Automatic annotation (TrEMBL), chain A:
It comes from Pseudooceanicola albus. The chain crosses the membrane at residues 20-42, 62-84, 104-122, 129-149, 188-209, 221-238, 325-346, 366-387, 418-439. Belongs to the cytochrome ubiquinol oxidase subunit 1 family. This is Cytochrome ubiquinol oxidase subunit I. It is found in: Cell inner membrane; Cell membrane. Signal peptide: none annotated.
Amino acid sequence: MPPDTLSTLISRIDFALISSVHILFPPLTIGLAIILFVSEALWVKTQDERWYRLCRFFEKLFIVNFGAGVATGVTMEMAFGILYGPFSQAAGPFFGQVLGYETITAFMYEAGFIGLMIFGWGKISRKMHLFATFNVALSSTLSAMWILVANSWMQTPTGVEFKDGIFEVTNWLAALFNPNVFAAFPHMLLAAVELSLTFVVAVCAWFVLKRRNVDLFLRPLKYALVALAVVAAVQVYMGDVLGENVLDNKPAALAAMEGQYDTYDKDGNVNNAWNIIGWPNKEGTGLAWSIKIPHALSLIETKTWNGAVEGLNSFPKDEQPPVVLPFYSFRVMAAIGGALLLLGLWGCWLRYRGQLTERLASQQRLFLMACTAAVALPYIAVIAGWWTREIGRQPWIVYGMMTVKDGMSHMSTALATFWLIGFAVFETAVVLGTIWFLLKVCRMGPDLTSPVAGEGHEHLGELDLPEAGKADHPEYVRPI
Amino acid sequence: MTNHLDDMQYFLANAWWLALGVAVLLYIALDGADLGAGIFGLFVGDHEERGAIMAAMAGTWDANETWLIVAGGILFGTFPFVYGSAFHYLMVPLAFVLWGVMARAVTLEFRHLASAKWQCFGDWVFGISSLVVTFFGGMCVGASLQGFKLTHVEGQVPHFAGSAFDFVSAFSIWTGIAAVVAVLLSGVLFVRARFEKDEPIRQDAARWTATIFWLAIGSVVITLVWSLFKFDWAREKWLGHFFWIWAIFGILALVCIDKVRRATLRDDDVSAVLWYCGALLIMGLSMLITLHPWLVPHTWSIRDGASPQVSLITFTMTMGGFLPVMVMYNWYQIWVFRARISKLVSHAH
């Protein structure tokens, strides 16, 4: 491989690593914030202490995840300019502006209310705290919206003119409300909620399985399973909407996702079969082999028995995305979507059969183990989904207007390798640390003894006395 | 490439440039204290005390670091041409800064969950990464002041045209060191202000103050003299027709520095921190005005670096709509925690 291609490849992998690791954390922040708001609202409304205990417990997990999200997110913002300098310059007037809005309206907003949410218990009134939690949920959702606006614009760049190497915005509304964002943002938001529900299901199921605090964790488990069944079903529909959106706007990407090389076969009939699995031939002009279901592709994509789906070979060779990765990552994502729906339905069925009571629930060992193990699935699905989306857009960085190659900063092979190794080490440390501490918080379990936070102002001016046995430790008190 | 901004747009670009400068200064003032306290922690032997230093910043570090993100956001949104080329130029030092930022965030947020052995390791990582962020951050500033090479192709945005190690020079290494000294002063003042007066850790910090204070003064003087000889844009302003403006700035900065000294001598720690921030703000603003109309000297002017899409609508939306809301809830957050008294060692979320 010539050194130029090699360094380009390494620097692409580097950006892929930075963005793939970052996307592990924000979905849980978004979804769990919404779930925390719901359970806190239930506590404020019903005064049932169990909701409060659950809130405080899941909040600990939330913070671990949030810390990792900030750590990898700062990197993400800087990485555009460093690794994709020419792209950042060209797209900055729109893309940078939108990311700037994300910083100001969402990131700052979130940072402010997260401080209140974490440290505000007992210092502000219950309603005010609930309001803070609400704002954390709203701001993280807003943040996702801005990011998806920017990313969708790269998929369907409307409202701009590419002139003198700069994307000039000719119509702000058309650029902001580009065709792709209407399907992509709801899909991502639902993914965040689905991931978080699975996370809650897994944690609760583990406690029930271990027969620890069953009275506390069974109720959220049942609620979350029902919610998961509903959300997963809606997500299947939303995924289909996004699929059609891709077909309309980025036909080459859809062709790669489905391994559709030729629109018509040799006899001029429509290629309507859906490839379950397959592998491209050496020349990259068709599938060497595949297992297919006739008519399924036309049904899924065009909702007709024999509708034509444009194949990859109708695009010039240098405008075709790679096939294997989007093809399989798409299938992995879709399969996981189905699996989570089944898990939710399984839970609903057990509940309907009266198996999920405090007395009986812990005996459903297979179900509870499946729930706990399922926590890995939505994470894999999120990464697979983003790979499908981003690799499907290749070779373009801004679809049909600018190629990734033109948007990259030039790096020597040595420098690109230095970056890759450095980031691989640090990002791995962040991921492993996060998993380790999430597990540790779960092992420690919920705090059932501290006094419930009151209506505020109660701790002001009060000094905590040293606990017995720890009196030799110095006390550190901040002056007022 | 010539950028055709009309008068209104040029005015807005200048306003954004000022906002960018203020965000960077706020970052240096606020997170500087956290970074300095982190470096100071490397010299603190007691495990509990190190934990207490980190606990003291636990509630604010992410809000402080947010100003760096805001600066990045303004740079990307309003000065994309500078963002895309300067970050490419600073690829190597920024890598170190980012690794440091990641390591700091993780070791700080996870400390209260870790076992004692891991806490010791984490504290060490926290201190080293604070040092790394500061040194390479300072190098980035020095390297930016020197400017960098751009391509000049008709009809194209100028890209970065130098090599990855152009940022290394005696001057940029010096600014890295100077940043460590400045931040250390900030950190020591922060530790003094956050702990009870008879705490051993506060007394250690107090003992350090005098030495670091004079080191910081020395660093500032060396940086100024070096800049005067090295940079024509600084020479023209400082020794030019309006030299008295900079003389006034200089005197104001000296007054603030003197106040810092007096406040530390009479153990008035909060005043010391405030006067330190005042000195930083005055010196920072005078540096900004010295730079004008350059964003990066001899490389990017405000006019050329600004997005041709700068518009009154987006500016008003940000400064008129979002910013007041932002300031309002930040103020509320600070107000809520105004009188927080807690046993910082037992900090747990």
